[in-house]
Every structure is written in structure tokens, then in C-alpha cells.
Specification:
The protein is built from eight helices and six strands; from the N terminus they run E-H-H-E-H-E-H-E-H-E-E-H-H-H. The protein has about 180 residues and is α/β, with parallel strands linked by helices. The radius of gyration is 17 Å and the shape is globular. The chain starts with a strand and ends with a helix.
């Protein structure tokens, strides 16, 4: 299952590129779940219908924290096609649950992702998104599992407790 989660606002999130990529995914045994709400939700639903993909793309609307965690747990791939993303919390959450991350190369993602080690960089382009999804699907299970395990390990570097203790240590050093 392919997941995208966040505010449905085209200018910032570019979800239309994922919708358009869906028709180029070779393995037709997939489902895309787009979770969230925002000003462009109706546009995305219309685009999905126009592309003939209503049976492949599900819009959930707003999801609770429990549902969000469940979605991360069942997802195989998390797609974040945003043009500009600072330090994306959804990126880390997806990695924490072992989702293979596809994200654009921006100031937030370059701090987190090592391309083809714990995630993949994508262009804001339907063809590139589809090619990366097709590449993941072509991997043996062991290759996909390696990406997932590396993502989990990477997310642990950004553990809140570790970050907080690092800040406290820095403040103590500066105070002395």
C-alpha cells in the first residue's frame, strides 16, 4: 500500500503528481491512500475520477492519531511530493514505522534521507514518482526489507529523548 498523509494543498504538497503517477505504476495490484484534508481535496478527488483511478486511490479525510499510526504500519511506501518541506514530521513518522520513503530533495529531507539507503529522492514529476515506485516493486523482498530497516534505524537518530538530551547538554556546556 502506498500512503500520502498531510494537508491537501496543491501549491505546497503537489499530491496531484502522485495521482498522475498512479497510471504509470506497472504492477496494478496497488492501493494509494491519501489521508488528510485541505482546500484541494475536491480537486484531487475529481482528478482521480478523471484519470479513471477511483478504484486505486482512497481519500480518507481527516484521520485520528490512532488511525494515522495504523496507516503507517500497513503502508509499504510513503510518498511526500512537496516542493518545499522544512523538517517534515510525517517523514520521520513514516520512517519510524518502516515505510519506504519517497520525498523530494528539499531542505528538510536532505537532513534525513540517504538516497537508496533509507529512502529515495523523487522529482515533483509523475513519471519519476512512478519509476521509483516501480523500482521498489522490482526489488527482492530482502532489498525492500533492507530499505525499511535502514529507515527505522535512521528515524531513531531523531528520537525526541535523544534530541532533548543533546539540547540540554549543549545548554549546559554554553552555560559553563
Amino acid at each position: 500500500m502506498i500512503l500520502s498523509l498531510g494537508r491537501l494543498a496543491e501549491l505546497q504538497k503537489q499530491i496531484s503528481k502522485l495521482i498522475l503517477a498512479a497510471s504509470k505504476i506497472r504492477n496494478k495490484d496497488f492501493i494509494i491512500i491519501i489521508a488528510g484534508t485541505g482546500p484541494d481535496k475536491d480537486y484531487y478527488i475529481k482528478l482521480t475520477k478523471f484519470q479513471g483511478l477511483s478504484d486505486k486511490i482512497i481519500f480518507t479525510g481527516f484521520v485520528t492519531e490512532d488511525v494515522k499510526i495504523s496507516l503507517y504500519k500497513v503502508a509499504d511506501v510513503f510518498v511526500q511530493p512537496s516542493q518545499n518541506e522544512s523538517f517534515g514530521l510525517t517523514t520521520l513518522e513514516a520512517m519510524h514505522y518502516g515505510d519506504i520513503l519517497l520525498a523530494t530533495k528539499n531542505k528538510g529531507s536532505v537532513e534525513i534521507i540517504n538516497d537508496k539507503r533509507d529512502g529515495l529522492f523523487i522529482k515533483v514529476d509523475p513519471t519519476d514518482i512512478a519509476e521509483k515506485i516501480n523500482w521498489i516493486a522490482s526489488l527482492k523482498e530482502s532489498g525492500r526489507n533492507t530499505l525499511k530497516q535502514n529507515a527505522i534505524k535512521k528515524s531513531n537518530y531523531f528520537n525526541y529523548d535523544k534530541m532533548l538530551s543533546g539540547y540540554i547538554k549543549l545548554i549546559e556546556e554554553l552555560a559553563n
